[in-house]
Amino acid sequence: MSVTSSTALDSQLTTTWGPTNSYPDGPLVMSGYTSRLWPHESQPQFWSKYQVWEWLQQVLDIHQIDASSIPFQNFDMDGHQLCSLSYQDFIRAAGSLGPILFHSITELKWSGQYHVEIGQLDLKPELDYSCPFPDVSFPPGEIYDPSLHSLAPVASPTPSSPDIKRSFSRPHQVKKHNPRGTHLWEFIRDILLNPERNPGLIKWEDRTEGVFRFLKSEAVAQLWGKKKNNNSMTYEKLSRAMRYYYKREILERVDGRRLVYKFGRNARGWRESEK
DNA sequence: AGGATATTTCCTGATT
DNA sequence: CAATCAGGAAATATCC
């Protein structure tokens, strides 16, 4: 397990990751975090609420399940609590997705080292979970506080074993046709919903109304591009995609204010209470 | 294989 | 002036 990548952070901090694909394919995957992980961070029972949240995101992502299809508030707990849930608890908390989550956490509980050598579940090697939203556009010098990393290390826990994938009863209706995972609006929403990982990229203007504003438009575009394995993404292009959402009412128009958008009636999972 | 969906890419023109 | 906003058109990438 070439935990190498030591300098992954450095490169991320600088600006790099965008250019050439930092994600060829193959085992590589696990990034620099691995080496920075504290033993606790690799053991679910010691996870913070945030890490639990992150684990959820990863499992959903790997299974290409829409993030809005699970009641996140049911998992507003730390790792200790999470680990004490029974299979039935998972069913109650996540319905048909319960088995998947249960299996994942069970695996993790049994292997505090899951993050090592997992690089090749037959899943795409595209997991960029380990990226704590490096802020690309930052001009050299003003990188985002490295201390943030200590908050979101976990990252690498690529939900363990390959068999997790399909082993359990395949809940039906679990995923639709996504042009490669998450939709743009969901990607944006998730950044918004995860302040710890949002080093000033996007900010809520009006939380209850669903109004938000891009603070670092190009950085967000770079991140989006990274997720789509497209290093030439720009805000110009990303915004075109955003504008298409108006018609579908996933976004509502907010004119006059530059870089400001608002979630529409067809955007789900962004409200504090909802879902 | 082919259509549908969701962007991505490009572009011209208007605003801020 | 540079950055955005607006959309139309056409090209792509995935999905099913």
UniProtKB/TrEMBL annotation:
<keyword id="KW-0805">Transcription regulation</keyword>
<dbReference type="InterPro" id="IPR046328">
    <property type="entry name" value="ETS_fam"/>
</dbReference>
<dbReference type="GO" id="GO:1990837">
    <property type="term" value="F:sequence-specific double-stranded DNA binding"/>
</dbReference>
<protein>
    <recommendedName>
        <fullName>ETS homologous factor</fullName>
    </recommendedName>
</protein>
<feature type="domain" description="ETS">
    <location>
        <begin position="182"/>
        <end position="264"/>
    </location>
</feature>
<dbReference type="InterPro" id="IPR036390">
    <property type="entry name" value="WH_DNA-bd_sf"/>
</dbReference>
<dbReference type="InterPro" id="IPR000418">
    <property type="entry name" value="Ets_dom"/>
</dbReference>
<keyword id="KW-0539">Nucleus</keyword>
<comment type="similarity">
    <text>Belongs to the ETS family.</text>
</comment>
<dbReference type="Pfam" id="PF00178">
    <property type="entry name" value="Ets"/>
</dbReference>
<feature type="region of interest" description="Disordered">
    <location>
        <begin position="155"/>
        <end position="177"/>
    </location>
</feature>
<dbReference type="InterPro" id="IPR003118">
    <property type="entry name" value="Pointed_dom"/>
</dbReference>
<dbReference type="Pfam" id="PF02198">
    <property type="entry name" value="SAM_PNT"/>
</dbReference>
<keyword id="KW-0238">DNA-binding</keyword>
<dbReference type="InterPro" id="IPR013761">
    <property type="entry name" value="SAM/pointed_sf"/>
</dbReference>
<feature type="domain" description="PNT">
    <location>
        <begin position="27"/>
        <end position="112"/>
    </location>
</feature>
<dbReference type="GO" id="GO:0005634">
    <property type="term" value="C:nucleus"/>
</dbReference>
<dbReference type="GO" id="GO:0001228">
    <property type="term" value="F:DNA-binding transcription activator activity, RNA polymerase II-specific"/>
</dbReference>
<dbReference type="InterPro" id="IPR036388">
    <property type="entry name" value="WH-like_DNA-bd_sf"/>
</dbReference>
<feature type="compositionally biased region" description="Basic residues">
    <location>
        <begin position="167"/>
        <end position="177"/>
    </location>
</feature>
<keyword id="KW-0804">Transcription</keyword>
<dbReference type="GO" id="GO:0030154">
    <property type="term" value="P:cell differentiation"/>
</dbReference>
